[in-house]
């Protein structure tokens, strides 16, 4: 698991309770996906005709991020299926875990789910 | 299960793919919670000393909401534990299901998890 | 000037000071534009080849909207030029003015600024 | 004028037209204010009893920021009055100017507008 994204918490991301509003964790996990693909050596421009869509996300909060904090996102492959894969994102402030996001993506071709390309699968298994 | 919230999809909620960005479904479910409490006959101002926090959310997408659509949110109690409860939110455009959100809340008193007040539990069981 | 849009303030729109974060007023004014066009009898699907872009916005705050408030947006034509027009949006909670937004749009055709179509201009002058 | 803030454009900040939605420029300018105070040698924790509020913002767009771009924000004092001050924020992608934001703040003490503290004024004039 390695850090793929980081950002200072924005004032507009904090709510009346002084903590980051829950939906922003999903924004951060979404942003972290692109550098994670890059880190896996996967270049989506090489997979013309294939796309992926988000089908599910789960979020578990352990503690709150606040204005003044810088959040980091670590990402790792959680599960690789034939047509789906789940990435686990751990969002922290320093060592402290704030939220674990698990997002499941499905590979699409011509609008229908399809197996991940072999080359992509090989890179993820490496 | 009954409708507790509704809103037209905003232009700023749609992304480059022309569909609602995933984090906004969590915003809508969050907005739907307050009218759901009201519908259960639960007035949080009557529970001084008790609060609740979100500990987990699960989102499953079935189809996309788009600009021009009006989304509705139905809500129902999914599970009631001693100190936690899970509400299921079904977000639809017309009859079409877009996303099911399940959010788990924990009751707090003085910062520690505590059993839901008996009166609140009675109303939820009604 | 007439009311073209309204919405309850969302929890996620309020910041740590307990008031609506300033950028959301721009979101609301943006949402109010579409029903304002409709109210003027202007159907943009009739102007194929023409588009408009935002070139400037000015926001003046007088008071704050808060969670629990419902905001309304009144809109009126402020100024009509050859290729530009400015719409004034007054955002209120009840009678109380919170923010006046003035946004200037420029008419485009093939990516270049162009005069507003005569028919559209006639409707705005009506 | 010096750079005080920078961030990659987020996917969720882009709209159906593939460009950053206008309200996000206001979020970025707001984020840029805090490091600008720091750069002026102004520590707001030293001004107990004084606060400031935003009373107006103007935004002028010249070009669009897009996903994949990194935006930078330069900030400078535009105008210093007795109780108000205006900061100019220039938001760029590389050398290209996307948006100029001018925001006016008023100094408050006990909820009423008041002159900026002499020490703060001296630092801004330096």
TrEMBL record, chains A, B, C, D:
One of its GO terms (molecular function) is fatty acyl-CoA hydrolase activity. It comes from the Bacteria. Keywords: Hydrolase. Belongs to the 4-hydroxybenzoyl-CoA thioesterase family. PANTHER family: 4-HYDROXYBENZOYL-COA THIOESTERASE FAMILY MEMBER (PTHR31793), NOVEL THIOESTERASE SUPERFAMILY DOMAIN AND SAPOSIN A-TYPE DOMAIN CONTAINING PROTEIN (0610012H03RIK) (PTHR31793:SF27). This is Acyl-CoA thioester hydrolase. It comes from Blastococcus aggregatus. The lineage of its organism: Bacteria, Bacillati, Actinomycetota, Actinomycetes, Geodermatophilales.
């Amino acid at each position: 698991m390695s850090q793929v994204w980081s950002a200072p918490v924005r004032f507009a991301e904090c709510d009346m309770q002084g903590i980051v509003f829950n939906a922003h964790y999903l924004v951060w996990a979404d942003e972290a996906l692109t550098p994670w693909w890059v880190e896996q050596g996967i270049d989506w421009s090489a997979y013309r005709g294939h796309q992926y869509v988000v089908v599910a996300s789960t979020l578990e909060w352990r503690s709150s991020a606040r204005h003044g904090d810088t959040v980091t996102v670590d990402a790792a492959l959680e599960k690789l299926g034939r047509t789906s894969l789940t990435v686990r994102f751990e969002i922290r402030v320093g060592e402290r875990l704030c939220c674990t996001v698990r997002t499941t993506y499905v590979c699409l071709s011509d609008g229908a789910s399809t197996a991940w390309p072999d080359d992509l699968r090989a890179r993820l298994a490496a």
